[in-house]
Write the structure tokens for this entry.
Amino acid sequence: MTLPMHQDAAAAAAAVLRRTRMILLLLLLMFSLSSFPSVTAECPEKCLCIEEIFFCHKKGLDRIPDRIPPAIKVLDLSYNEIMDIESLAHLTELETLIESYFRNLSNNNISELKHGAFANLSKLQSLLLNGNKFENIETGVFNNLTSLEFLLLHENNIHKLDSEIFKGLTKLYKLTLNNNNISEVKNGAFANLSKLQILNLSNSNISEVKNGAFANLSKLQTLLLNGNKIENIETGVFNNLTSLDSLSLHDNNIHKLDSEMFKGLTRLFKLMLSNNNISELKHGGFANLSELQILYLDNNKIENIETGAFNNLTSLKVLHLDYNNIHKLDLEMFKGLRKLDKLFLDHNMIRHIPPGTIDSLTSLSLLWLDHNPLTCDCNILLFVNVLKKSYPQRDVLWDNDPSCHFPVEMKEKSLKEITKNDFNCNVVENELFYLIM
């Protein structure tokens, strides 16, 4: 049986976690042995070398040691003061995470990556260069890393990505570029990474994403663009991402969602658009996302939701619309969301809830409505009683306890406590059964 895309991603993540734990256990073992003399005669002073393991973590080094054994498979030089990467071409046996081994130059003071620094490292599978100080990467520096699967470049000062910078990394699975100073993602920047599944570009001051930026990434499953300065996204940017499972666009300056913006994302499971400046949701804005199950639109400036905005979201289970400026709910607004389990409408400006608004939400188990200026009237009473009748085994309002705001005499009265005795309602005969307590 074929697993859903998000389950594949979860399985891959679990495998990585298991390997990481193995690495940590290995490092713990090495640390516990650090008081014993090194067993390899070639091992530099202060470092620990056990067979194929070279461990020189937090040793105050300002350069890469000369006497690194050529046959090592584990190399950790993290948390030192290393400023330059000299050629490591003689380390032809260096491997990485697949065998629970890795090469680590993270958290040093490396300021530049020169062409040839990683020549002949054709077996290298994981390269950690995060937490350094380099701004530019010479084109071709990664060309010979034909086995590389993990490349971590986050928390540096990288300003630009040339179209040839990742050429040759045909097996790369994960690339992290978050927390840099990249202002623009150009057309074809990742075109050579046909096997890439995880790309992190978050918190990198990106203001523009051009059409073609993610061309040829048909296997990408996770794309993080959150925490940038993106205002507009060109139509077609995501068209080729046919395997994408999770898209993070939260904490940007996005103002509008074009009707074709998410075209092609037929396998998308989770979409995060929280903390932007979106003011309107138009008809068909999410029309192509039939597999979407989680949608975050909270903490925007949404006032108007057109009828049909959520059309075709037949798999949606969680919808966050909280912390917006929504004033009214359309009778057809949630039509078709038959699998919706959780709906968050709290912290808005909703005053009235038309009868029948949530009638189509047959799977609903949780509805958040608190912190709205609700007017308690016959329609609200009808709405509450529909909840009780439609979901007799569930407390849909749970403990968030929405309350009346108007009229004054009912202010702060819980919706759960209102009854027909609070009103003098004239209802048509076919609605009268809803009011029977």
